[in-house]
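User: For my dataset I need records formatted as: sequence, then structure tokens, nothing else. Please produce one.
Assistant:
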Amino acid sequence: MTDMFLNNIAMLLITPLLYVFVGLVALLVLKRRYKLLIVSLILYLYVISIPYTPNQFFANYWRVPDTYDPSVTYDAVVVMAGVTDANLHVAGNFPFYVPQNHVFYTNGIERIWAGIYFVKKGFAKKLLFGQWKVKTYNEAEGVRRYALSLGLKEHQIDLYATVNRTIDEAKGIKALNDKQPIKRLLLITSESHMRRALAMFSKQGLNPDVFSTNRHSTHVEFSSFLPTASALEHSWHCFYELAGYVFYYLAGDL
């Protein structure tokens, strides 16, 4: 209960627009016109709402360079979980025309495609995927069916452990490695998540090569400086990854 409460508080605190609203409320309370504060709030809102900000942050400062080696056949490729809309599946209120056993994926599906590709093409021997469970829903089962439908064999898929967080995945692979050493491991996750994921794997004594998906564009054009709702969401993701990295660093997991 305490962890859930703290998680909710953290989610609130990393919401970029929160501080705009706090500032506006402060203006109402003070009943004065502070030009510097108003200008600062406007500038802050503009910076976090243009695509240029999160794209440049992730692509130029936060990303981890790929170390994937195409000349190597990896013993396994591990793909980070959290690629489906678990809440939607738990609710289960699907329209009648949705096919049975259909899986609603998020943009995390890109890393599943990458993992399947490397195994199918012979660059890796096995796909490792954690069993993220939310109530009665097990994401890994849907991913397994999807991988099989795209040509992987049962023996090429290993649903290795129950996981809820990235640290659980790192510890799960560590336990798997302790039982049967994985000499060459390839870690796949999104570009924004890779720095934190790799740090956790390294903390467990693992030394995977990495391959990032969901890469942010470095292309700059006029629209890069126009505020959009999606840019606000991406800025929130910047706050999320920064806060997550700091939290786990202080907890000793990085």
